[in-house]
Amino acid sequence: MAHTPTDHGHPVQLGDGLAVSPLGFGGMALTPVYGDVDPAEALRTLHHAVDAGVSFIDTADIYGGGSNEELISQLLKERRAEIQLATKFALVGTPADGYTDIRGDAEYVRQAVDRSLQRLGTDVIDLYYMHRRDVRVPIEETVGAMAELVQQGKVKHLGLSEVTAQELRDASAVHPISAVQSEWSIWSRDVERNVVPAAAELGVGFVPYSPLGRGFLTGTVDTSSLGEKDFRRNIPRFAPDAASANQAVVDTVRSVAEQLNATPAQVALAWLFAQGKQLGLPVVPIPGTRKAARIDENLGALGLDLTPAHLAVLAAASDAVVGSRSANPTWVSEGRE
Ligand SMILES: NC(=O)c1ccc[n+]([C@@H]2O[C@H](COP(=O)([O-])OP(=O)(O)OC[C@H]3O[C@@H](n4cnc5c(N)ncnc54)[C@H](OP(=O)(O)O)[C@@H]3O)[C@@H](O)[C@H]2O)c1
Predict the structure, then answer these.
(1) Which of 42, 105, 107, 257 is the most buried (most CB within 10 A)?
(2) Does 28 contact ligand 1 (Cβ within 6 A)?
(3) Active-site residue flag, 63
(4) Which run of H or of E encompasses 152?
(5) Backbone angles phi, psi at 20, to 5 degrees
(6) Chain-centroid distance, C-alpha 319
(7) Is the minimum distance from the CB of 288 to ligand 1 under 6 angstroms?
(8) Strand pairing of 24-26 and 91-94?
(9) What is the pLDDT of residue 96?
(10) Is the pTM of this model over 0.90?
(11) Catalytic residue among 34, 63, 99, 209
């Protein structure tokens, strides 16, 4: 049975004065990446998120080759004022068909933002992220171009995805950074070594992506029957041998959930809130789902307290995870530290 608190919480302050709902919504899989999607259901799910108080909505220019931003535009058309809108630039290609390049040069930043604004049908983006670091370009150039967008009023706040601690420090010297968005969950803890402490020190919020381990931590993903175009096929820890070893972490999450009368997804999210609390770091995960009911379930994680004993059991399970979290290890922060 799901844990169901009645209070969905107050807005959370990320860095640079950006206030967002305490749980966000990841829109990536509302265009095909982990399987087929019914566009009408996707739009209903987005409306349900906002109705339920999940108003920090995450997309990116490459999701669905631009069609994800176009889907979000249908929500914005009716409810722009209620939403804290985040999108990203830098990856070239699509998650389903493969990324082909990363662009962080100033000229690209200027073009990308205008394309996103047009697809989104809005005149301002609340949080604009560099999706990946282009190592051919000094980060000062990329963030400098992003800062110009703030001055022009096209963007309100800046964020960085999959940066190292040093990249975060260098970027913060150019312009205040509101949030780092990187993968962080019970089975992806490498960010805790460097970038999480740096964010806490600099007053930058953290937005963990894939907080449910791309669904794996909930125990609902059958890795032996992923569709032909399912992006998870590219990730080493979803490969047959690794996935079967990693079943142990799913079993541990399930067992903690049973003890708390909660669900595995709620435990996975509550674990992230517990990390944020321990570190004094604002942490706002952005789980994604195609199904409205799962948003209500995921909201049940707010106010679900894990005991030190539960945290210890989950940490031990996490230490036993096998396989890289990324299809391309050089494109995530861990590969550049
Ligand atoms: N910055 C980056 O590079 C980056 C990379 C990846 C993702 N992201 C962002 O992070 C967001 C979330 O990440 P993600 O979609 O990769 O992974 P996730 O949120 O960890 O997991 C999503 C998967 O979990 C399933 N799910 C959701 N709630 C559930 C529940 N209560 N019980 C059981 N299953 C549940 C969903 O399936 P159903 O749809 O069937 O419910 C979906 O397949 C993305 O949407 C995107 O916005 C960013």
Answers:
(1) 257
(2) yes
(3) yes
(4) none
(5) -135, 165
(6) 22
(7) yes
(8) unpaired
(9) 66
(10) yes
(11) 63
